[in-house]
Structures are given as structure tokens and as C-alpha cells.
Amino acid sequence: MFSYIVKRVLTAIPILLGIVLLIFLMLQVVPGNPVVVMMKEKANPAVIANLTERMHLNDPWYIRFGRYVWDAMHGDFGISYKMKNREVSKMIMDAFPNTVKLTIAALVVAWAIGIPAGIISAVKRGSILDNVVMTFSLCGISMPTFWVAMLFQYVFAHKLGWLPVSGFSGFQYLILPAFVLGWSYSGSIARMTRTNLLEAMHNDYIRTARAKGLKESSVISRHALKNSMMPVVTMMAMQVAGMLSGAVMTETIFGIPGLGRITVDAIKNRDMPLLQGSTIFAAALIILGNLVADIAYSFLDPRIRVS
């Protein structure tokens, strides 16, 4: 098991380096001098040239990339051009806990709705309840997040006055964004759970378990559900990584100062160090999510470790 985990970690390292290189090169072709962005266009040309030299922006791209990777390995993602010259790593670490809170709340909603809904829909296949659950999940998948967020704000905050419209200073501020984000993910979980559970329930070992006289609830929970959860686990791990990397639309609409919000601000302000750092941090979380899913696979199915 240990060797399997080490192999997966060693495989993830070059993938992360490739993503860092791709992001670095893509942002290098963006027109404009970062020093001009930082000092405004009215700055003295001599000062701009001097500061450009001091920041090593005239060096070849591969030298700057090597320096950037070395600094990033030590937790230094550079200095923000627009946010009062604050350290990018400090800004990311300040925003990340807010994203974590939103992620945990949204995951509780998504998993609490998605998994039971998928199980009920599979067990009651073809019934009215099945159709209602699948319609509900389809709405969660297909409706744009920004539209659902504004609808929830209008109904539950503006009309009913039950919850605050936006902000982030207490538990009540998490309820609306958590349900908006969680509902969009719960639909995928419900459909995936239903599909895999239905497939598992047609296998020979399920017929054998029923022939032994086991209760239907025991057959589903102990046999069918366990063997149908591997694709669902992968999806759930990716959802965690996706939420942690910054739920851009939800955080922006509800005014949550998380990773998604600072990424949007970096794009609007052309703050390349902040955009680069937040994007790489998000990519690292996606890779970590894949790694966790691979390790979870090996626990659910020991044959993966053998292969």
C-alpha cells in the first residue's frame, strides 16, 4: 500500500510542474509591462526601466520560470501589483479558510441530498418518486449557478427576509451559498449513484445474497452500494478539489472573500502574480483531489494495488 501511494505522489509531481509551466507561459504572453500596471502609466520611463531591471523582468523566460518555481517551493508566489504590494501567498492563505468553510457546508448539502436521492431513485426505479428525484437532480445540474444564486437571494433574502443577501460574518451567511453550490453538485452525485447502483443490483452476487434470505436493505447497503461507490468516490473527490480551488461564481455573487473572489479581482486588475499564484494553487488542489481518489480506490478495491 505504501509503495502504491509513493508511486501516485511521484506521478503527480511532473503533472504539477507541467501545469505550472503552462500557466507561467500563458501569462507571459499577456500584453503590457507589469511595472506599468503596478506604477500607473504616468510613472517616469526611467523609473519603469530601472524597476523592470530590478524585478528581473528582462531575463529570459526560462530563467524567470526557474526562479519562480524555486520561490514557489519555498512558499513565495511573488508580490501583488494592485493589492497594496501584499504577498500573494499571504493573500491566498487569508482567503483559503473562507473557501474551506463554504466547501464544507456545500459538501454536507451535496452529499446529504445526492447519495440518499440516488439510492432512493435506484430502489424505486420507474416510479413517480424516481422521476421526481431525477428531475430535481437534472435541474441542479442544468441551471446556471449565477441564476440559482440570484433566485435564492431574491426569494429567501429579499422577499422572505429569512437570510442575508450577501456578506460573510456568521453561520447564517453560509446557508444560501452552501445550498446554491451544494444543489449544483448533488444532482451529479444522485445520477451517478443511481446509475452505478442499478448496474450493481443486476450482478450475480446480488442474486446470491437475495437467495440466502438477506433483507433487501442489507443487500443494498452491504453488497450493492459498496461495490457501486467507486465512480461516486472519484466524483466526490473531484468536487472537493473543485470547491476548494474556488467556487468563483458563488463567492463573487455572495461577496465571500475566498479563492474564487481574489481570482476574479486579479483578472479585473490585471494582477498577474496574484492570478498566477491562485491558479497554480487551484491546480494543486485538483491534483490532490485526484490523488486522494486514487488512494480511496485502492482501499475500496485491493485489486488496484496489485495491478
Structure explained in plain terms:
- This protein has 307 residues and is mainly alpha-helical.
- It folds into 2 domains: 2-85, no CATH class; 89-306, MetI-like (MetI-like fold, Orthogonal Bundle), CATH 1.10.3720.
- Helix content is 78%, strand content 0%.
- It is flat and about 85 Å long.
- It starts with a helix and ends with a helix.
> What is the overall number of helices?
15
Average pLDDT reading = 78
Low-confidence stretches: none
CATH-derived topology of the largest domain: MetI-like fold
Number of domains: 2
Written as H for each helix and E for each strand, in order along the chain, the element string is: HHHHHHHHHHHHHHH
CATH architecture of the largest domain: Orthogonal Bundle
What distance separates the N and C termini? 12 Å
So what's the overall shape?
A: flat
Radius of gyration: 24 Å
Top-tier CATH class of the largest domain: Mainly Alpha
Largest sheet: none
Fourth CATH level, the homologous superfamily of the largest domain: MetI-like
Regarding quaternary structure, how should these chains be classified?
Answer: single chain
- Total beta strands: 0
Q: Tell me what portion of residues adopts beta-strand conformation.
A: under 5%
- SS-derived structural category: mainly alpha
Work out the helicity level.
over 70%
